[in-house]
């Protein structure tokens, strides 16, 4: 049977399948909702089967939709690899699908993206912020070309890992907090303190809570936010404490807007790492992007004084 199936429609289908919302998918793809709906309807006509069940304002994947997801991912990934495999006159070109945890998107990646755009304008970058566990799954499946994680070091045989930074964790508080001037703060002294935490799963917060539990202490209420910047502003305002790395709050510490408590968090190091599937072709575009990221992110990890000396 002859088919006129468009890869654009498959890509749109995957976005709707991920968000389970026509409205959010249209916003993410910058489409009019009518255009997005038309693409899904065209795909359903082509396949002769509905892909989504519309239950009032909610949508879910049908059995046909669930089956299509894996095939659609493979076809869209193959298209991206095909575009990347034919660079123009040796200049990196094509599309790169990049994932990163929210903190890296907000703090460390912008300079990398700007530098990539300046040096390789023919490479189009798509960025997917997400939790580290989901980013790892996306790299393993081939849905992402590369991802940046801030977590425990990944140790999987199918994943190539390069660690760009490695830091211990600190507890941050407003400068006028009752423990801010103490030379040593024991984990049990944090009992009852509220913590401002990320909405997505957070391994390094678990490390602190485990240290407190081992000392027989429990935290107060946990206040969830989806943005690292919102967490920092809430700590400044006295809403609660938070767990972070110095790199993530270096500006606020230098300006005196936040204070580091002298509390040793459990032996846990957060590794900023770039990961890709070991079988992923290292295209000129992907190679150039990783090299720029290594240079920019490793440089940002230096203390301010060291950065001034190297400038």
Explained architecture:
It contains twelve helices and twelve strands. A five-stranded mixed β-sheet has the order 4-3-5-12-6, with helices on both faces. It has a three-stranded antiparallel β-sheet with strand order 10-7-11, with helices on both faces. The longest helix has 22 residues, at 63-84. The chain has helices spanning 7-19, 22-29, 33-47, 63-84, 102-107, 109-119, 132-141, 203-214, 228-236, 250-254, 284-300, 304-310, and strands at residues 52-55, 58-61, 94-100, 123-129, 146-151, 159-168, 170-173, 195-198, 222-225, 242-244, 259-261, 269-277. A hairpin with a 2-residue loop joins strand 1 and strand 2. It is globular, with a radius of gyration of 22 Å. Residues 302-311 have low confidence and may be disordered. The chain has three domains: 1-84, Winged helix-like DNA-binding domain superfamily/Winged helix DNA-binding domain (Arc Repressor Mutant, subunit A, Orthogonal Bundle); 92-164 and 271-311, D-Maltodextrin-Binding Protein, domain 2; 170-267, 3-Layer(aba) Sandwich (D-Maltodextrin-Binding Protein, domain 2). It has 311 residues and is of the alpha/beta class.
CATH fold topology of the largest domain = D-Maltodextrin-Binding Protein, domain 2
Largest sheet geometry? 5 strands, mixed
Mean pLDDT: 84
Q: Give the topology string: H per helix, E per strand.
A: HHHEEHEHHEHEEEEHEHEHEEHH
Helix residue percentage? 40-55%
Q: Helix/strand/pairing class, anyone?
A: alpha/beta
Q: Unreliable runs, pLDDT <50, ≥5 residues? A: 302-311
Tell me the strand order in the biggest sheet: 4-3-5-12-6
């Amino acid at each position: 049977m002859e088919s006129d199936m468009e890869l654009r429609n498959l890509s749109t289908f995957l976005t709707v399948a991920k968000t389970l919302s026509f409205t959010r998918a249209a916003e993410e793809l910058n489409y009019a909702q009518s255009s997005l709906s038309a693409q899904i309807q065209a795909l359903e006509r082509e396949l002769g089967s509905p892909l989504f069940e519309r239950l009032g304002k909610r949508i879910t994947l049908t059995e046909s939709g669930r089956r299509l997801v894996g095939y659609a991912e493979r076809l869209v990934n193959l298209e991206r690899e095909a575009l990347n495999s034919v660079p123009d006159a040796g200049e990196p070109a094509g599309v790169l699908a990049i994932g990163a945890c929210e903190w890296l998107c907000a703090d460390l990646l912008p300079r990398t993206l700007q530098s990539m755009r300046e040096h390789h304008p023919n490479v189009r970058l798509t960025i997917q912020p997400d939790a580290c566990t989901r980013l790892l799954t996306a790299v393993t499946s081939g849905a992402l070309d590369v991802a940046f994680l801030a977590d425990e070091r990944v140790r999987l045989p199918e994943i190539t890992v390069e660690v760009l930074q490695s830091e211990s964790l600190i507890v941050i508080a407003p400068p006028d907090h009752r423990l801010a001037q103490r030379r040593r703060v024991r984990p049990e002294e944090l009992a009852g303190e509220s913590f401002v935490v990320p909405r997505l799963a957070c391994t390094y917060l678990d490390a602190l809570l485990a240290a407190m539990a081992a000392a027989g202490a429990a935290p107060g209420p946990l206040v969830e936010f989806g943005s690292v910047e919102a967490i920092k502003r809430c700590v400044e305002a006295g809403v609660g404490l938070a767990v972070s790395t110095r790199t993530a709050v270096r500006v606020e510490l230098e300006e005196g807007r936040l204070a580091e408590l002298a509390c040793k968090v459990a032996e846990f190091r957060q590794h900023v790492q770039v990961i890709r599937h070991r079988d992923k072709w290292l295209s000129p575009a992907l190679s150039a992007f990783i090299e720029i990221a290594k240079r920019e992110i490793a440089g940002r990890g230096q203390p301010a004084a060291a950065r001034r000396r190297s400038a």
